[in-house]
Amino acid sequence: MSERLQVPRGTYDVLPDDADARVALEKTARRILGGAGFRRIETPAFEYTDVFARGVGASTDIVQKEMYTFDDGGGRSVTLRPEGTAPICRAYAEHGMHKLPQPVKLWYLSSFFRQEKPQAGRFRQFWQIGAETIGSDDPAVDAEIIALLATLLAELEVAGLRLRIASLGTLEARHAYREQLQAHLHARAGELSEDVRSRIDLNPLRAFDADHPGTRAVMQDAPLLLDHLDADDAEHFATVRELLDRAGIDYTVDPTLVRGLDYYTRTVFEFTSDALGAQSAVGGGGRYDGLVAMLGGPATPGCGFAAGVERMLLASARLPVGPPPVDLYVAFEHPAQRAAAFAVVDEARRARLNAQVELAGRSRKGQLKHVERLGARYVAIVGDDMTMLKDMQAGEQRDVAANEVVARVLRDRGMR
Ligand code: AMP
Asked: Does the CB atom of residue 66 touch ligand 1 within 6 A?
């Protein structure tokens, strides 16, 4: 016997119950985001590597060690998308969407790929629902993006939600602040973890994420970016907060909020759920006013969120699982009636009934047992002369002609 093969590490199969829950999640997202004027977009599963190297940032964990990068067969480097925002900004520039009425509002439900260490809630192929509003720097855009994700998570009844927000200011303000932070870290380098110390020059902001006690002590006295915003950025952040307050959305301002991508400017935010374990982030995002230009498009502001599908499913108290109800099951007495039964089930499906037909050559008794297992509402047993139609809920049965079964079921259902 050959060795039994399995899915690659960090990936998983979406089995039917999970697939049903995903369909329900997608429907909810489409209703909320579609209703708010967002149109669906789907970009390719891989992009030229530059889209991420330039967009996400060369010093980030994602670009440094998590991308699946390969040659496209013609000597050009391509990468399986690790995130959705840079590709959408690439598409915005490529299709001249700046000529449309602004802002352009787009949403997606796609799979993403990161070579991370797999653990509960963290996969190497995972799905995200995301929304991007591109072409306006109005603080109402930031507040709307946050509010829409809050609405989605509330509709899914994600338990123990917390929202943290911060502002990173402009790229220039962040660079100036970065130097101050680096000076602080260099001055107390001896107290830092090896990992943080080795990345002071590359990515000092990540030091806020550290668990190492010495590093944490150093970070207690670190300068905070929020205290170094220029007047415009501070006003922008104040307006976002005011809009969230008016909408009754709870949040805490967390000056240490760090997101793993370089393109963020001004507002950043993250929702976590207490219902999840160590990987508690359900979704987050922020503003990325320089990203479209970094990818070669016109200078264009933008703001968006991305939320993890697996984590929403794990934390949601509401998503249904299980197959749709069966309206009609068509059984038959003898194999000779298979064709007649097949015609009945086909007619039923054209009439939009959820209908199934016996496919496994079961005995009459076996078929009825199967009907019970399925919880079918009606069962039709096609016989030589007549078909016995039974309402399993009411317990009533009658003989009808095979070609009357569907009309009967429809009429019967309409009357109840
Ligand atoms: P990020 O773009 O890293 O902020 O991710 C946004 C959201 O996607 C996170 O809050 C998670 O819910 C989800 N996510 C990110 N990385 C993974 C992963 N490796 N596996 C599963 N979900 C992820």
From this structure: no
